[in-house]
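Query structure, 264 tokens:
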């Protein structure tokens, strides 16, 4: 475990060097958050409550979704596996004395921690200064929210890992990762809350793993889930994380028999 903790720390420090990308990401997340907030305000002025969400809930959701773009890597795959397959460096990765999937999970947790601290805080603070947001005063809600975010990060990694591993067979994974990013943006609730979906589609989306990325953490933050319902949300995230990680382990085992090292 110490090795994986060091990998996580090293990944965090590596992303810390990309200060220009950090500033660009913070600015983009903030600006688009403000634009979406104005749109939501116009929609909610027509109907004061939609799916149990008032205007303050909807605005809070907008800036929570913007804050989740970094840690959940909602718009990009964020894993270097395909590039290392094309360069041939994946051969070195497979022979490292650490578990291949756990190595990439530890690396991704470092990236996610950097994304949470570096890209999430500023957009939410700006949103809170410009709009009336629902900010819980109970520290237990914040703690429950952070646990939901952590579990959602693992689900996010497991989904992106499966997409990235397709490069072992396709070499160019852009089609698969592009489709995965679209599904993440739509079904994860990044564009709009799932409560705005038609009833049947919203119910279906809440049963899929992408709901762990934005909707469930936001529900905990907004107090839509309390008590035992929070435990149910955790079990949902843990169940999908375990299932997807097991699928990733199976894919990894098959990929080891199909390694194509280019230029080596």
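Result returned for the query:
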């Amino acid at each position: 475990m110490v090795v994986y903790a060091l990998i996580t720390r090293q990944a965090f420090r590596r992303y810390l060097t990309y200060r220009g990308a950090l500033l660009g990401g913070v600015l983009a997340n903030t600006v688009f958050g403000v634009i979406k907030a104005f749109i939501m305000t116009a929609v909610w002025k027509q109907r004061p409550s939609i799916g149990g969400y008032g205007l303050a809930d909807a605005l809070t959701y907008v800036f929570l979704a913007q804050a989740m773009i970094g840690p959940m890597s909602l718009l990009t795959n964020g894993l270097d596996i395909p590039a290392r397959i094309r360069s041939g460096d994946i051969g070195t990765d497979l022979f490292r004395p650490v578990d291949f999937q756990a190595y990439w999970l530890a690396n991704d947790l470092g990236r996610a921690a950097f994304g949470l601290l570096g890209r999430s805080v500023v957009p939410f603070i700006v949103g809170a200064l410009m709009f009336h947001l629902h900010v819980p005063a109970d520290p237990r809600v914040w703690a429950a929210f952070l646990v939901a975010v952590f579990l959602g990060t693992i689900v996010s990694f497991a989904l992106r890992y499966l997409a990235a591993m397709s490069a072992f067979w396709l070499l160019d994974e852009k089609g698969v990762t592009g489709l995965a990013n679209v599904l993440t943006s739509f079904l994860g609730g990044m564009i709009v809350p799932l409560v705005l979906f038609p009833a049947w589609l919203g119910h279906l989306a809440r049963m899929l793993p992408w709901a762990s990325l934005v909707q469930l953490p936001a529900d905990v933050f907004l107090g839509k889930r309390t008590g035992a319902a929070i435990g149910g949300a955790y079990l949902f995230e843990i169940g999908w994380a375990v299932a997807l990680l097991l699928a990733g382990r199976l894919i990894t085992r098959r990929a080891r028999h199909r390694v194509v090292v280019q230029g080596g």
